[in-house]
Amino acid sequence: MAASAALVVVVLLAHLSASARVPTATPARAAAAARYARCAARLAAEPPRPLPPDPPDPPDPPDPALAVGIEPGHVFVVQGDLRKLSADAVLYPTRSTDNVLWFPDGAPPGAIAPPMDAFTEDERVQKLHAPDELAAGGAGPQVWLAQLNSKFAPVPQPNTPLSWFLAAAEQFLTAAYADITASGEPPKNGRVRHLLALPVVGTGAKNAREVSGDILTALLGTLYAFASSSEMDVVLVVKSPRMFSAAQASRRQLAASDRELADRQWRALSRSQLSTARRLARLATAGQLALFLGAGASAGAGLPEWNQLLIDLARDKLSGEAELAAFSRLSSLDQALVLERRLGGPERLQAAVCAALQTSHHSLTHALLAALPVDGVVTTNYDDLFETACLGAQVSYNVLPYQPGWANSDEERDEDGTHAGGAGARASDGGVSAGGGGSRGAKRWILKLHGCVHHPEDIVLTRTQMSEYSDRRQALTGIVQTMLITKHMLFVGFSLRDENFHKVATTVNKALAGHARAADAGVVGGGGGGGAGGGAAVSGRAAAGAAGAGGSPIGTVITLHYRPFLNDLWPQLALVPMEDGDTLPQSDCARTLEIFLDRVSLLASTTSRHLLDANFDGTFSPQEHALREELLDFRRRLLAKPEARKASAYRLVRDMLLALGDDERGLQRTPYDAWANEDVESGDVGEPWQGDAQPLLAGEGAEDGGIRANC
Questions:
Q1: Which CATH architecture has domain 72-267?
Q2: Which of 251, 302, 481, 680 has CA 20 to 30 A from 267's CA?
Q3: Highest mean pLDDT among 47-61, 428-442, 544-558
Q4: Which residues pair with 142 in a beta bridge?
Q5: Greatest C-alpha distance within the chain
Q6: Which of 493, 435, 500, 494 is nearest to 465 (CA)?
């Protein structure tokens, strides 16, 4: 820089000398020369300046949606019952409200169905108009009906082009978007984005089931294109485990082939959140993850969180805003006690709470969590929405403490061979009965720590009830202690303020600290397993996690906002806020949580259940095609040797083939068969659900007079 300044001085002086030789000097020229001289003097006196930094690398090309001021929507995939999911608009693949598969209880009261002749080739999707109070107040989503029966297509099956089925989905997205935008209605249940939900169109038995894989891949592409150009979220709801496996496999392949899509899909998540999602997915697939659900998990279904529920109940029992403000400053236990006395006793308070928690549609969060491969769930919630989501995901369950022995008992079975509320429960009531759920050989147990809406007398609300709870339910807290020791607990929607949980966690901390000291002394042997009714034996994972003060966390807490001091209060837990640095509105953080859980679900999903199902050819990678051919060749040789199928080990081989999507009708049963076990997934080829172990619910393409679900 000094050399540059000297050069400038030389140039300026030379210029001045040249000016001096000009015979026609004027006052203006003299003034200019003086300015040059002053500038040269300043440059000569200035210290050297540092060189400017190199220009930054050019940014990535902007997302086309962002370039026009649109924050792209997100595409979710869940396994569940479309009729039970809370959304702003849903697509039913039928033209008629008389279809008992999609309307088992009939059309909504007062709903006006479109006439059949309203469905034309250009307008194959029509809105089901509801009374104004339903349309505006919105317990359920806006329902759209669609013409998807290929016998009405210009080219009937088996030659109906895939584009004909996809056109109905595109018409739904376009029409629902326009209708919601024109209405000005905000998203339901406090979401920050509207949510559109639809099934895998065209894969019913009378449609294009044999090319389900091609339809699925093309449909996902359509949904991604819509979400990238709009501000609405979309959720694809599938029913069978095979379709869910194929859908998740298609998502991975689409992301692998389109870098821009892969980046845009998870743009809302930080690197830390993405890393945590991978860690939780690995724990889930290893069978080491358990869930702990609080009131926040039900907020997306429109249910109030605990403090808000008490304030809502108190409004009619308090005199004025001043008393309500004072009431809001009390602890939740004291608030419940005040309400109990104002309402006239614990029974009336419990009944009021149950009435306030009645809703028919579960949240997207429930659906994302229900399909995770976890066998143990603890919840402080009274509602039954997670149970409803489990039914939709075809996950059988027992609810503790109400069916503690049903998992191993043949007693109390209904005439149809199932338990009320279990995986084979009645479709009309969502499968959740007053019995609370239950199924022999259930894959999951759900511990209702504070009671259930189906058992109001057990609901824990006041400080007195909390104290009585500690005495009466020591066995339940023992289960939670066992899970904290033997599993990694994922907390969703839970504030960590529950006093009973504090006591449980304190006991676990003491146990782990003592175990760590014993491990350091070399006196700890291999740990045994612990289940819902098992002992508190410490697993190898727990021993490693407890070793030393810097051991692995025993759980992960998902919070919407950053909460100062929470790390100091709970050092044994990993805390993951959904806001990354910036302070965001709660609704934005709640949507980030949904995207985070969608990422966990994608990474934890088994993407091999459809491998031997020829209907999903369109979703296989070259490597999967090669493996599939080898397995099919093995299957052909095995079925050609009846003697080999008489071996006791054949059942294990057959179960492996079934788990990979084989059709059990081609596999001969043997004397060693354990086919009656409800854990076996039977007859779930494509959509809809079939088989003895699961309810027959609405299927894609079920047009004009479906068969009523078995009861």
A1: 3-Layer(aba) Sandwich (3.40)
A2: 302
A3: 544-558
A4: 89
A5: 122
A6: 500
Judge contact between 529 and 538, C-beta under 8 A.
no
Residue % of the chain over a pLDDT of 70: 69
Is residue 328 classed as helix, strand or coil in its secondary structure? helix
Residues pairing with 574 in the sheet: 556
For residue 233 the two structure tokens come to 């979220």
Quote the CA–CA distance of 443 and 397 in Å, as a whole number.
Answer: 6
Pull the structure tokens for residue 75.
């595409």
Taking only the tens place, the pLDDT of each residue in 572-631 is: 888 999 987 777 888 999 999 999 999 999 999 887 877 777 777 777 778 887 888 888
Half-sphere exposure of 168 (CA within 13 A, CB side): 34
Mean pLDDT of 444-460: 89
Taking only the tens place, the pLDDT of each residue in 27-64 is: 544 554 555 455 445 434 544 444 344 444 434 444 44
Report yes or no: 229 and 70 within 8 Å, Cβ to Cβ: yes
CA dihedral angle for residue 47, residue 53, residue 54, residue 59, rounded to 10 degrees: -150
Token representation of residue 676? 């009656």
Q: State the angle between helix axes of 306-314 and 332-343 in degrees (0 to 180), rounded to the nearest 10.
A: 30
Q: Yes or no: say if 486 and 539 are a contact pair by the CB < 8 Å rule.
A: yes
Q: How far apart are CA 595 and CA 603, in angstroms?
A: 12
The H or E element containing residue 291 is strand 289-293
Residues 6+ apart with CB under 8 A from 263: 60
pLDDT per residue as tens digits for the range 292-301: 999 899 999 9
**CA angle, 606 then 611 then 617, to 5°:** 125
What is the Cα–Cα distance from 424 to 435, expressed in whole angstroms? 13
Q: Which residues of 602-641 are buried (b: 16+ CB within 10 A; e: fewer)?
A: bbbbebbbbbbbebbbbbbeeebeebbeebeeebeebeee
Distance CA(468)–CA(460), nearest Å, equals: 9
Instruction: Report angle CA 353, 296, 194 to the nearest 5 degrees.
Output: 105
Residue type, 374: V
Strands 125-127 and 142-146: antiparallel
104 near 386, Cβ under 8 Å?
no
Among candidates 124, 196, 197, which has minimal Cα distance to 163? Answer: 124
**Which residues, including other chains, have CB under 8 Å from residue 228's CB and lie 6 or more apart?**
63, 64, 65, 72, 73, 264
Please name which of 392, 78, 63 lies closest in space to residue 234, comparing C-alpha atoms: 78
Q: What is the DSSP letter of 274?
A: H
∠ Cα 402 404 406 (to 5°): 100
d(CA 32, CA 16): 9
Q: What is the DSSP letter of 77?
A: E
> Which pair of structure tokens corresponds to residue 518?
């014993």
* Eight-state DSSP code of residue 362: B
What is the rounded CA–CA span in Å between residue 482 and residue 504? 10
CATH number of 289-301+360-395+443-604: 3.40.50.1220
| β strands within 155-277, DSSP E | 195-198, 233-238
CB of 84 within 8 A of CB of 360? yes
**Rounded CA separation 680/687 (Å):** 17
Q: What are φ and ψ of residue 592, in 5° steps?
A: -60, -40
Instruction: Pick the closest to residue 224 from 249, 252, 254 (CA basis).
Output: 254
Measured in degrees and rounded to the nearest 5, phi and psi for residue 290 equal -130, 160
Gap between the Cα atoms of 383 and 14, Å rounded: 89
Two structure tokens written together for 679? 């854990």
Whose CA is closest to 199, among 234, 242, 149? 234
Worst-scoring range by mean pLDDT, 35-44, 369-378, 460-469, 659-668? 35-44
